[in-house]
């Protein structure tokens, strides 16, 4: 395969794959001149020249995502980014062997530079204290008007079935450049493990064992700062995950699936307004939009639930209905808003006339774009996989489902496994066909098919009885639309 190296301020390798022109960025600085360099000591290399240096090296296998590893030699449990100080707060646990041969765990809160990943400072936790959660949070009424690293911990003792003691630690980052340090501003003892933390309207939400607890910031006349308990909500098994939007709080329970709470500011209370009646053992939680929430559970499935706020009866309004199910085959441990690519705001992929509640109309020749005002969401798994979830409109879903069904008739799975069976939602209590999820990997596999198989897929699509009088697809039409989809992540 012939490659073209474009030497510029963003060096790029351009190449052809399956009759498509593709490119891959090179993680090198500005390159002014390049030439092939082959010698006994440096076989099949490149010589790269900038204004300040001459580099001899090779280009790794082309990939979309470049990964650089920094070894901690410890168990990294949680991470949070504080952009103002350009730091990362990382909760770690180290394992050592004492003089008696017993393994000893030691928890730390470590501060890293977000560019060099240099360890700037470390805070050593108490014996038997394990870090369990961290969030970057500003507080209303704070005289310093900055953000803090808020850390939740638990004291783990072998004779306790579950932790009965923990702490919430509030750290400020002081100093500049290489002198940045963690300063403990205040701490709050709690009666349990702080499994999760969430920045909530200038306050902080904490999941402490079976309770969702809200704390507010308080400063005394002599500038003493502390967290004060405001209100809470019981009724959970273990509050493992919490996300919030406005005054609404979404809780992921150990075994009671998802529930929706509401903070009543005037009353100073938190009330439950809806819950999922299924028993899902949660592993992660996210908010898709105001009324739709996504969860993952321990049998490697994804599901979405939706609030029916316009229902006629209190019973229906108090129930979160399951609207989507999908077997991922991976143990998801985190959802986060974000994208792995730079977002394109050009009019070629966005509808500028779409309002906050409009759905982007998708005609047969229109590009595939995310639903208006939606946010792409990343998820991470225990195996190290990073995935993308992108909300789409109903019309987009209908079209992509047709493409997916056409592909399954042409492309057979490894070992002859059925795609439909593999993606079925299945746990120890129930089984259901996948719905309202599109397998993006399968759809994008169309781009890697040989031309004869592409033509078979298009033929299946044109003869599925769903054209409704519109023009038939060509291989070029379908390729263009799926390439638009691939560019979104």
From TrEMBL:
Record's keyword annotation contains Nucleus: yes
Pfam family, one: CPSF_A
Molecular function per GO: nucleic acid binding
InterPro entries: Beta-prop_RSE1/DDB1/CPSF1_2nd (IPR058543), RSE1/DDB1/CFT1 (IPR050358), RSE1/DDB1/CPSF1_C (IPR004871), WD40/YVTN_repeat-like_dom_sf (IPR015943), WD40_repeat_dom_sf (IPR036322)
Domain RSE1/DDB1/CPSF1 second beta-propeller stretches: 2-59
Keyword Nucleus attributed: yes
One cellular-component annotation, GO: nucleus
Family per similarity comment: Belongs to the DDB1 family.
Protein name, UniProt field: DNA damage-binding protein 1a
């Amino acid at each position: 395969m012939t490659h073209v190296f474009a030497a510029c301020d963003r060096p790029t390798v351009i190449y052809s794959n399956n009759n498509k022109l593709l490119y891959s960025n090179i993680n090198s600085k500005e390159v002014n001149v390049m030439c092939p360099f082959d010698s006994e000591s440096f076989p099949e290399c490149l010589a790269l020249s900038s204004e300040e240096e001459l580099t001899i090296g090779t280009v790794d296998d082309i990939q979309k995502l470049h990964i650089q590893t920094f070894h901690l030699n410890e168990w990294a449990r949680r991470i949070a980014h504080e952009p103002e100080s350009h730091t990362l707060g990382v909760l770690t646990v180290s394992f050592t062997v004492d003089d008696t041969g017993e393994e000893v765990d030691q928890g730390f809160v470590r501060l890293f530079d977000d560019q060099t990943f240099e360890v700037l400072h470390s805070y050593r936790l108490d014996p038997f204290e394990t870090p369990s959660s961290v969030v970057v949070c500003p507080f209303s009424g704070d005289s310093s008007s900055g953000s803090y690293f808020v850390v939740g911990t638990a004291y783990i003792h072998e004779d306790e079935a579950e932790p009965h003691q923990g702490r919430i630690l509030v750290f400020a980052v002081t100093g500049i450049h290489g002198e940045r340090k963690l300063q403990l501003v205040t701490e709050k003892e709690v009666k349990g493990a702080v499994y999760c933390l969430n920045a909530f309207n200038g306050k902080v939400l904490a999941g402490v064992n079976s309770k969702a607890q809200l704390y507010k910031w308080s400063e005394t006349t002599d500038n003493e700062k502390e967290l004060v308990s405001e209100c809470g909500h019981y009724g959970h098994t273990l509050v493992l995950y919490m996300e919030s939007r406005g005054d609404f709080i979404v809780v992921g329970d150990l075994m009671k699936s998802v529930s929706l709470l509401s903070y009543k500011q005037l009353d100073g209370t938190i009330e439950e307004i809806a819950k999922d009646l299924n028993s899902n053992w949660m592993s992660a939680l996210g908010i898709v939009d105001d009324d739709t929430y996504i969860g993952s559970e321990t049998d490697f499935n994804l599901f979405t639930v939706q609030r029916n706020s316009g229902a006629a009866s209190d019973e229906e309004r108090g129930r979160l209905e399951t609207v989507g199910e999908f077997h991922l085959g991976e143990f998801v441990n985190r959802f986060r808003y974000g994208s792995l690519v730079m977002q394109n705001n050009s009019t070629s992929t966005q509808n500028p006339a779409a309002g906050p509640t409009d759905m982007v109309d998708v005609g047969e020749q229109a590009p595939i774009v995310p639903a208006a005002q939606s946010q792409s969401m990343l998820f991470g798994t225990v195996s190290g996989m990073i995935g993308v979830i992108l909300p789409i409109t109903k019309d987009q879903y209908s079209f992509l489902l047709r493409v997916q069904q056409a592909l399954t008739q042409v492309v057979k799975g490894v070992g002859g496994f059925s795609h439909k069976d593999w993606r079925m939602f299945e746990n120890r209590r129930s089984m259901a066909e996948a719905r309202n999820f599109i397998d993006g990997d399968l759809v994008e596999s169309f781009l890697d098919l040989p031309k004869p198989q592409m033509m078979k897929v298009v033929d299946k699509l044109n003869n599925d009885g769903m054209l409704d009088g519109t023009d038939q697809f060509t291989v070029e039409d379908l390729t263009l639309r799926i390439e638009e989809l691939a560019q979104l992540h």
